[in-house]
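Weekly modeling sync, notes
Attendees: S.R. (lead), two postdocs, one rotation student

Agenda item 3: backlog of single-chain predictions. S.R. asked that every request posted to the team notebook include the full sequence so nobody has to chase files. The rotation student volunteered to paste the first one in as an example of the format we agreed on. Action items at the bottom.

Example entry:
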Amino acid sequence: MTFTELQLKIQNAKDLDFGDIFNRSIELFKKVWVQGLVMTILTMALMIPFYIIMYLPLIAMGLFDPQALESGEPNFALMIPFYLMMLVFSFFAMVIGFALKAAFLRICKMKDLDEVGKEDYFYFLKKPYLGKVFSLSLISFGITFAATLLCVLPLFYVMVPVTLMNVIFAFNPHLSPSEITKAAFNLGNKKWLITFGLILVSGMLAQVVGILMCFIGVLVTASFTVLPLYYIYKDSVGLDEKEIDRIGEGQQF
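Predicted structure, as returned to the notebook:
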């Protein structure tokens, strides 16, 4: 699907039904909850090294200036690297999360359409997609950071198109980062209210059910918030059977 075709389909997208998408998301969750759990655990595991790196300045402070920790007076010479590490960590966390979520969306498509193929969670962390993942993560990070600086309220608006960037990339990895961003904002503007509502309700449900499952259940239910995005894209744009490649076999669009 070309960028022009994608834009045309977004412009002509039919009205979406909140209840229908929500119910289908629940049904799909029954098929992919294991894969969603794997995605969540992999995301957490891949972030552990970055957590260690981020806290190295504080560890150094404890070794070289323990009195600063005891007195509560910050050592700015070490706190500045800590905050810089936090910024870098936030970006790399976004890269990992973006890539794994996109791969999970492809697995959702496979389960939804009863396709047979390899469940490749690292599909987008390899060539030729890794560069685009970095670019899109940087764009998402920049948009989110700028919206946060603008008194937070704009963050509620941009969270929809920024979230949709993931699903558009998952099924159109051949498009450029700028094209994916434009398509996400176009789809987000057209379907903002229902997308925001589904993100909010699915997120709340995932948290509540996860807490009722003795908190550890949050790991199981976390992936549920991704599923409405799949159906928003599928019902708005559609999945061209001719362009659906075999998951994990490296065939590009």
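Discussion: group reviewed the output briefly. Confidence is low (pLDDT under 50) at residues 244-253.
Action items: rotation student to repeat for the remaining queue; S.R. to check formatting next week.
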